[in-house]
């Protein structure tokens, strides 16, 4: 139903959509699927270069590559005929693949190429000093964080969406498989069209028999970002804040998903952790185990995008303090931390893009000080050195020349 949504012509529908999304932000996380993730490794490669998808290099036959093959099937990418899942490359799947290639080609032309070129220049110094990225309110958005930080050692993502499990394709009937592809297409529509997920839609899209939780989408994004899914497992956080392997996602306490992935060009193994945790103060303060884990984060670069302005509210102060205490860098749009949290005596700020006001749905979060930062008096050369162009759209006001990003560096 969102295919007819065009913000500059029908902002009422977009406001309704965001209203549902914000309402979902304070809801209780759903119960996760209890199926175990598949642990696997493979050397398959495929590349997305602008709008061209290349054929994959077959994985070695003696390697259990179920997780990566599954991610590739979900992503609409071809897999080796020697794979146990090769039979899923049916006429229905090929139709899905054709549409997926078209959707991703458009996305890559509009977003990936521009974002990559921008980040290679503007984030070069940040990348060289970043070993861990902290991404609260992320949902399954590996896509954007990997574009900005493609070689980071560790990513820690937190959302309300459940962990879920990779679909057991080998045990799936043809009818179930045919239902899977439209569900994947639907779940990706908003992020490929507008650069963000619709939380209320994910609550439905990621709780079906065929598509369950964030794990399928995270690994799908890895496949489309030319990453090999090496291994997935559930993890459990001990009362001391230490990670332990969990037998499945239904164990008590704080659970998460660990995904080891690898860039076939560099052969570097990286790790992503996703936790389904409610970060509102009254929930987080009761969650002593996860607070202990956050205390052990170390120095991070925090990334915030389409965060519903939750950190502007006093009842998200606990996670706000975690960000301020542990971050050397914060990369965000205006829906993240309010500017008042970054005093010039403690942080250097660089501003990209445009800020006039939030979209109507979030009008109450207008920041006069941020407007002033984006509209400074020119220096003697007629330049505004702390405000630079942003060549792509991102966030709620996702159109080019209407979006913003900010980079704060701790002094």
UniProtKB/TrEMBL annotation:
<keyword id="KW-0732">Signal</keyword>
<feature type="signal peptide">
    <location>
        <begin position="1"/>
        <end position="27"/>
    </location>
</feature>
<protein>
    <recommendedName>
        <fullName>Lipoprotein</fullName>
    </recommendedName>
</protein>
């Amino acid at each position: 139903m969102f295919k007819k949504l065009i913000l500059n012509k029908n902002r009422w529908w977009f406001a309704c959509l965001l209203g549902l999304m914000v309402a979902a932000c304070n809801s209780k996380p759903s119960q996760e699927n209890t199926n175990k993730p598949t642990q696997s490794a493979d050397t398959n490669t495929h590349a997305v270069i602008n709008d061209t998808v290349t054929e994959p290099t077959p994985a070695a036959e003696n390697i259990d590559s179920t997780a990566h093959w599954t991610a590739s099937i979900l992503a609409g990418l071809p897999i080796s005929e020697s794979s146990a899942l090769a039979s899923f490359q049916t006429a229905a799947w090929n139709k899905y693949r054709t549409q997926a290639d078209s959707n991703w080609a458009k996305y890559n032309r509009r977003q990936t190429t521009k974002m990559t070129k921008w980040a290679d220049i503007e984030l070069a110094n940040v990348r060289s000093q970043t070993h861990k990225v902290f991404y609260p309110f992320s949902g399954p958005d590996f896509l954007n964080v990997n574009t900005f930080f493609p070689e980071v050692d560790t990513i820690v993502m937190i959302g309300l969406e459940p962990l879920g499990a990779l679909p057991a394709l080998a045990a799936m009937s043809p009818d179930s498989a045919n239902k899977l592809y439209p569900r994947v297409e639907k779940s990706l529509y908003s992020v490929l069209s507008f650069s963000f997920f619709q939380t209320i839609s994910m609550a439905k899209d990621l709780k079906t028999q065929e598509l369950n939780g964030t794990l399928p989408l995270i690994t799908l994004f890895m496949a489309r970002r030319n990453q090999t899914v090496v291994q997935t497992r559930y993890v459990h956080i001990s009362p001391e804040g230490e990670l332990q392997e969990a037998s499945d996602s239904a164990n008590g306490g704080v659970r998460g998903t660990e995904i080891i992935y690898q860039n076939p060009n560099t052969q570097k193994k990286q790790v992503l952790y996703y936790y389904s945790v409610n970060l509102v103060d009254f929930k987080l303060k009761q969650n002593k185990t996860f607070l202990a884990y956050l205390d052990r984060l170390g120095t991070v670069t925090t990334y915030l995008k389409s965060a519903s302005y939750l950190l502007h509210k006093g009842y998200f102060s606990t996670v706000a303090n975690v960000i301020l205490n542990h971050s050397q860098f914060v990369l965000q749009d205006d829906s993240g931390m309010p500017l008042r949290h970054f005093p010039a005596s403690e942080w250097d700020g660089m501003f990209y893009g445009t800020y006039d006001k939030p979209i109507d749905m979030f009008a109450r979060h207008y920041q006069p000080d941020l407007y002033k930062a984006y509209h400074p008096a020119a220096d003697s050369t007629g330049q505004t050195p702390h405000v630079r162009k942003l060549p792509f759209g991102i966030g709620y006001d996702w159109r080019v020349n209407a979006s913003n990003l900010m980079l704060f560096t701790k002094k």
